[in-house]
């Protein structure tokens, strides 16, 4: 995505959806509070940075030899997002409820490094380009990670303080599932347009 607004919207949308890293952040917010949990944010940025960098450096060159590969990867990412949305909707926030003790930075880093969202970022959201372009986009990405991660930590703290209130795991999960499904449809449209144009 070369348009900066579209890039940031896509990044924030995907970052905000519940997943393994966000679950750890919310759990830490619930158990340790916002200030103590903010130390986990650099670990998430480092995990995504390494994962996205490796994916784009290793698989990215293969896309030059196979022009339809980016569209196929976007379609695969859309399927993953649709599956995640359905799973989130059915779970109804169970993954965010009753998560034990706060996470360590090492656990957040490892979980983020293996997070399937990195595939979507690398192949469907980050635009192909020079190292300087990648660095610029990653700087914006890192700023979005800080904002969204802080939001997840704060949400965990809010859930812990107000059981049965407005912010509940089920509501967070359902809203995220709807947004994720919408993003999946947009990725399918983008992949289809690329195939038709080629």
Explained architecture:
The structure is a single chain. By secondary structure, the chain is mainly alpha-helical. It has one domain (4-197). It is built from 10 helices and no strands. The longest helix has 31 residues, at 131-161. The protein is globular and about 55 Å long.
- Overall mean pLDDT stands at 80
Strand content: under 5%
SS-based class: mainly alpha
Count of discrete structural domains? 1
Compute the gyration radius: what is it? 17 Å
Helix content: over 70%
Number of helices: 10
Pick out its properties.
198 residues, mainly alpha, 0% strand
Layout of strands and helices, then pairs:
Layout: H1 4-16, H2 20-32, H3 34-37, H4 41-58, H5 60-65, H6 69-91, H7 105-113, H8 117-125, H9 131-161, H10 169-197
Give a short synopsis of this structure.
It is found in: Cell membrane. The protein has 198 residues and is mainly α.
């Amino acid at each position: 995505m070369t348009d900066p607004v579209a890039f940031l919207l896509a990044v924030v949308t995907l970052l905000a959806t519940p997943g393994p890293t966000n679950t750890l952040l919310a759990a830490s917010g619930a158990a340790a509070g916002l200030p103590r949990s903010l130390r986990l944010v650099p670990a998430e940025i480092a995990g995504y940075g390494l994962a996205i960098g490796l994916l784009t450096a290793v698989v990215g060159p293969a896309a030059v030899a196979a022009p339809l590969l980016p569209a196929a990867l976007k379609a695969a990412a859309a399927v993953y997002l649709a599956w995640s949305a359905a799973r989130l909707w059915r779970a109804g926030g169970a993954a965010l409820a009753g998560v034990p003790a706060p996470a360590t930075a090492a656990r957040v880093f490892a979980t983020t490094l293996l997070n399937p969202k990195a595939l979507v970022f690398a192949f469907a959201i980050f635009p192909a380009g020079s190292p300087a372009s990648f660095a610029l986009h990653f700087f914006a990405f890192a700023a979005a990670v800080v904002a969204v991660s802080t939001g997840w930590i704060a949400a965990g703290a809010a859930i812990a303080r107000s059981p049965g209130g407005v912010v509940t795991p089920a509501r967070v999960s359902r809203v995220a599932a709807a947004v994720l499904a919408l993003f999946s449809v947009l990725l399918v449209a983008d992949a289809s347009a690329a195939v038709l144009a080629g």
